[in-house]
Amino acid sequence: MLIDTHVHLNADQYEEDVEEVIGRALDAGVKKMVVVGFDTKTINKAIELAEAYPYIYAVVGWHPVDAIDCTEDDLKWIESLAKHPKVVGIGETGLDYYWDKSPKDVQQELFRKQIRLAQKVDLPIIIHNRDATGDVVRILKEEEAEKTGGIMHCYGGSVETAKECINMNFMISLGGPVTFKNARMPKEVATEISLDHLLIETDAPYLAPHPHRGKRNEPALVTLVAEEIARLKGLPVEEVAQRTTANAMKLFGLE
Length: 255
Known about the structure:
Elements: E1 2-7, H1 18-27, E2 30-37, H2 40-52, E3 56-60, H3 72-81, E4 87-96, H4 104-121, E5 125-130, H5 133-142, E6 150-152, H6 159-167, E7 170-174, H7 184-192, E8 198-200, H8 222-233, H9 237-252
Parallel strand pairs: 1-2, 2-3, 3-4, 4-5, 5-6, 6-7, 7-8
Protein backbone atom coordinates (compact mmCIF):
# COMPACT_ATOMS: atom_id res chain seq x y z
CA MET A 1 0.00 0.00 0.00
CA LEU A 2 1.11 3.53 -0.80
CA ILE A 3 -0.08 6.90 0.50
CA ASP A 4 0.13 10.03 -1.63
CA THR A 5 0.71 12.50 1.18
CA HIS A 6 0.20 15.65 -0.92
CA VAL A 7 -2.11 15.84 -3.93
CA HIS A 8 -4.39 18.52 -5.36
CA LEU A 9 -7.36 16.49 -6.59
CA ASN A 10 -9.22 19.74 -5.82
CA ALA A 11 -7.49 21.45 -8.77
CA ASP A 12 -9.38 22.55 -11.88
CA GLN A 13 -7.26 20.12 -13.94
CA TYR A 14 -9.34 17.22 -12.55
CA GLU A 15 -12.74 18.81 -12.95
CA GLU A 16 -13.77 16.46 -15.77
CA ASP A 17 -12.37 13.12 -14.58
CA VAL A 18 -11.57 13.08 -10.86
CA GLU A 19 -13.36 9.75 -10.32
CA GLU A 20 -11.28 8.08 -13.02
CA VAL A 21 -8.08 9.57 -11.55
CA ILE A 22 -8.98 8.23 -8.11
CA GLY A 23 -9.78 4.84 -9.62
CA ARG A 24 -6.38 4.63 -11.32
CA ALA A 25 -4.70 5.48 -8.01
CA LEU A 26 -6.52 2.69 -6.20
CA ASP A 27 -5.65 0.24 -9.00
CA ALA A 28 -1.98 1.22 -8.64
CA GLY A 29 -2.01 0.42 -4.91
CA VAL A 30 -2.37 4.01 -3.69
CA LYS A 31 -4.93 3.30 -1.01
CA LYS A 32 -4.99 6.67 0.78
CA MET A 33 -4.61 10.21 -0.52
CA VAL A 34 -4.22 13.52 1.33
CA VAL A 35 -5.78 16.42 -0.59
CA VAL A 36 -4.32 19.81 0.27
CA GLY A 37 -6.40 22.98 0.16
CA PHE A 38 -4.67 26.36 0.11
CA ASP A 39 -7.39 28.99 -0.47
CA THR A 40 -11.16 29.24 -0.10
CA LYS A 41 -12.06 27.34 -3.28
CA THR A 42 -9.54 24.51 -2.87
CA ILE A 43 -10.21 24.09 0.87
CA ASN A 44 -13.93 23.67 0.21
CA LYS A 45 -13.19 21.11 -2.53
CA ALA A 46 -10.72 19.22 -0.31
CA ILE A 47 -13.35 18.86 2.41
CA GLU A 48 -15.93 17.78 -0.18
CA LEU A 49 -13.62 15.04 -1.51
CA ALA A 50 -12.68 13.87 2.00
CA GLU A 51 -16.35 13.55 2.89
CA ALA A 52 -17.13 11.67 -0.32
CA TYR A 53 -14.36 9.05 -0.18
CA PRO A 54 -13.34 7.07 2.94
CA TYR A 55 -9.68 6.88 1.83
CA ILE A 56 -9.25 10.61 1.13
CA TYR A 57 -8.21 13.07 3.84
CA ALA A 58 -7.85 16.85 3.82
CA VAL A 59 -5.23 19.38 4.85
CA VAL A 60 -6.37 23.01 5.15
CA GLY A 61 -4.32 26.20 5.13
CA TRP A 62 -3.33 29.25 3.12
CA HIS A 63 -0.62 29.32 0.45
CA PRO A 64 2.18 31.87 0.85
CA VAL A 65 1.82 33.15 -2.73
CA ASP A 66 -1.71 34.30 -1.83
CA ALA A 67 -0.87 35.47 1.70
CA ILE A 68 -1.92 39.02 0.86
CA ASP A 69 -5.50 37.77 0.31
CA CYS A 70 -5.85 35.94 3.63
CA THR A 71 -8.02 37.60 6.30
CA GLU A 72 -8.44 36.97 10.01
CA ASP A 73 -11.84 35.48 9.19
CA ASP A 74 -10.14 33.03 6.82
CA LEU A 75 -7.83 31.92 9.64
CA LYS A 76 -10.77 31.49 12.02
CA TRP A 77 -12.50 29.38 9.36
CA ILE A 78 -9.40 27.20 8.94
CA GLU A 79 -9.24 26.78 12.72
CA SER A 80 -12.89 25.70 12.79
CA LEU A 81 -12.26 23.17 10.01
CA ALA A 82 -9.42 21.64 12.04
CA LYS A 83 -12.11 19.94 14.15
CA HIS A 84 -13.41 18.05 11.11
CA PRO A 85 -12.72 14.30 11.51
CA LYS A 86 -11.15 14.06 8.04
CA VAL A 87 -8.82 17.08 8.43
CA VAL A 88 -5.34 15.80 9.30
CA GLY A 89 -3.04 18.81 8.94
CA ILE A 90 -2.61 22.56 8.53
CA GLY A 91 -1.14 23.89 5.29
CA GLU A 92 0.23 24.21 2.92
CA THR A 93 1.88 27.25 4.38
CA GLY A 94 5.41 28.58 4.32
CA LEU A 95 7.28 31.02 2.10
CA ASP A 96 7.54 31.46 -1.66
CA TYR A 97 10.01 34.07 -2.88
CA TYR A 98 9.82 32.97 -6.53
CA TRP A 99 6.50 34.71 -7.17
CA ASP A 100 6.10 38.31 -6.02
CA LYS A 101 2.33 38.60 -5.50
CA SER A 102 2.63 38.76 -1.70
CA PRO A 103 5.39 40.77 0.01
CA LYS A 104 7.88 38.80 2.08
CA ASP A 105 6.82 40.38 5.38
CA VAL A 106 3.16 39.52 4.70
CA GLN A 107 4.10 35.92 3.89
CA GLN A 108 6.22 35.62 7.02
CA GLU A 109 3.49 36.94 9.30
CA LEU A 110 0.90 34.55 7.86
CA PHE A 111 3.39 31.68 8.13
CA ARG A 112 3.87 32.42 11.83
CA LYS A 113 0.11 32.63 12.39
CA GLN A 114 -0.46 29.25 10.77
CA ILE A 115 2.33 27.62 12.80
CA ARG A 116 0.64 28.94 15.95
CA LEU A 117 -2.74 27.76 14.68
CA ALA A 118 -1.33 24.26 14.08
CA GLN A 119 0.02 24.24 17.64
CA LYS A 120 -3.36 25.38 18.99
CA VAL A 121 -5.31 22.62 17.20
CA ASP A 122 -2.50 20.05 17.61
CA LEU A 123 -2.13 19.07 13.95
CA PRO A 124 1.04 18.66 11.86
CA ILE A 125 1.94 21.55 9.57
CA ILE A 126 2.74 21.13 5.87
CA ILE A 127 5.51 23.44 4.67
CA HIS A 128 5.86 24.97 1.21
CA ASN A 129 9.30 26.44 0.53
CA ARG A 130 10.45 28.02 -2.70
CA ASP A 131 13.65 30.06 -2.78
CA ALA A 132 13.26 30.88 0.93
CA THR A 133 15.09 28.14 2.84
CA GLY A 134 16.93 30.37 5.30
CA ASP A 135 13.81 32.24 6.39
CA VAL A 136 11.68 29.07 6.50
CA VAL A 137 14.11 27.28 8.83
CA ARG A 138 14.61 30.39 10.98
CA ILE A 139 10.87 30.94 11.46
CA LEU A 140 10.24 27.26 12.22
CA LYS A 141 12.87 27.50 14.97
CA GLU A 142 11.64 30.83 16.33
CA GLU A 143 8.03 29.60 16.48
CA GLU A 144 9.03 26.26 18.09
CA ALA A 145 7.38 24.36 15.26
CA GLU A 146 8.80 21.11 16.62
CA LYS A 147 5.84 21.09 19.03
CA THR A 148 3.63 19.85 16.21
CA GLY A 149 6.18 18.84 13.60
CA GLY A 150 4.95 18.15 10.12
CA ILE A 151 6.16 17.77 6.55
CA MET A 152 8.68 19.54 4.37
CA HIS A 153 6.56 19.14 1.25
CA CYS A 154 8.15 18.28 -2.10
CA TYR A 155 11.56 18.78 -0.52
CA GLY A 156 14.25 20.06 -2.86
CA GLY A 157 16.95 21.27 -0.47
CA SER A 158 20.22 19.88 0.82
CA VAL A 159 20.87 16.86 3.01
CA GLU A 160 22.17 19.23 5.72
CA THR A 161 18.95 21.30 5.78
CA ALA A 162 16.89 18.10 5.72
CA LYS A 163 18.68 16.98 8.89
CA GLU A 164 17.96 20.37 10.52
CA CYS A 165 14.26 19.91 9.73
CA ILE A 166 14.25 16.31 10.98
CA ASN A 167 15.69 17.59 14.26
CA MET A 168 12.63 19.87 14.46
CA ASN A 169 10.28 16.88 14.17
CA PHE A 170 9.60 17.24 10.43
CA MET A 171 9.32 14.50 7.83
CA ILE A 172 10.98 14.94 4.45
CA SER A 173 8.58 14.32 1.56
CA LEU A 174 9.90 13.54 -1.92
CA GLY A 175 7.91 13.84 -5.12
CA GLY A 176 8.36 13.61 -8.88
CA PRO A 177 11.61 15.65 -9.03
CA VAL A 178 13.53 12.77 -7.37
CA THR A 179 13.03 10.90 -10.67
CA PHE A 180 14.44 13.70 -12.84
CA LYS A 181 17.86 12.86 -14.29
CA ASN A 182 19.37 16.25 -13.33
CA ALA A 183 17.85 16.42 -9.82
CA ARG A 184 21.06 16.04 -7.80
CA MET A 185 19.83 17.22 -4.40
CA PRO A 186 16.59 15.19 -4.19
CA LYS A 187 18.55 12.08 -5.19
CA GLU A 188 21.15 12.82 -2.49
CA VAL A 189 18.39 13.26 0.09
CA ALA A 190 16.72 10.00 -0.98
CA THR A 191 20.07 8.23 -0.65
CA GLU A 192 21.29 9.78 2.61
CA ILE A 193 18.15 10.29 4.70
CA SER A 194 16.82 7.25 6.57
CA LEU A 195 13.47 5.81 5.49
CA ASP A 196 12.34 6.53 9.05
CA HIS A 197 12.10 10.20 8.06
CA LEU A 198 10.79 9.98 4.47
CA LEU A 199 7.35 10.35 2.91
CA ILE A 200 6.31 10.23 -0.74
CA GLU A 201 3.92 12.47 -2.66
CA THR A 202 2.97 13.62 -6.14
CA ASP A 203 1.92 17.29 -5.69
CA ALA A 204 -0.34 16.36 -8.62
CA PRO A 205 -1.35 17.81 -11.03
CA TYR A 206 2.13 19.34 -10.92
CA LEU A 207 5.65 17.84 -11.11
CA ALA A 208 4.86 14.57 -12.90
CA PRO A 209 7.71 12.06 -12.50
CA HIS A 210 9.87 10.80 -15.36
CA PRO A 211 8.88 9.61 -17.99
CA HIS A 212 5.70 11.71 -17.70
CA ARG A 213 7.50 15.00 -17.00
CA GLY A 214 5.60 17.99 -18.36
CA LYS A 215 2.26 16.18 -18.44
CA ARG A 216 -0.58 16.28 -15.91
CA ASN A 217 0.48 14.35 -12.82
CA GLU A 218 -1.87 12.11 -10.83
CA PRO A 219 -1.64 10.09 -7.61
CA ALA A 220 -1.19 6.72 -9.37
CA LEU A 221 2.27 7.95 -10.40
CA VAL A 222 3.49 8.11 -6.79
CA THR A 223 4.55 4.50 -7.50
CA LEU A 224 7.35 5.90 -9.69
CA VAL A 225 8.60 8.02 -6.79
CA ALA A 226 8.71 4.95 -4.54
CA GLU A 227 10.53 2.96 -7.23
CA GLU A 228 13.23 5.61 -7.66
CA ILE A 229 13.82 5.89 -3.91
CA ALA A 230 14.08 2.10 -3.76
CA ARG A 231 16.59 2.12 -6.63
CA LEU A 232 18.72 4.82 -4.99
CA LYS A 233 18.72 3.03 -1.64
CA GLY A 234 19.18 -0.46 -3.07
CA LEU A 235 16.02 -1.68 -1.34
CA PRO A 236 12.92 -3.56 -2.50
CA VAL A 237 10.18 -1.14 -3.51
CA GLU A 238 7.85 -3.03 -1.14
CA GLU A 239 9.99 -1.92 1.80
CA VAL A 240 9.90 1.72 0.68
CA ALA A 241 6.12 1.48 0.29
CA GLN A 242 5.63 -0.16 3.69
CA ARG A 243 7.89 2.21 5.62
CA THR A 244 6.72 5.48 4.02
CA THR A 245 3.09 4.39 4.48
CA ALA A 246 3.71 3.63 8.16
CA ASN A 247 5.37 7.05 8.57
CA ALA A 248 2.37 8.81 7.00
CA MET A 249 -0.16 6.84 9.04
CA LYS A 250 1.63 7.78 12.25
CA LEU A 251 2.11 11.45 11.37
CA PHE A 252 -1.51 11.97 10.31
CA GLY A 253 -2.99 9.70 13.00
CA LEU A 254 -4.69 7.44 10.48
CA GLU A 255 -6.01 3.96 11.19
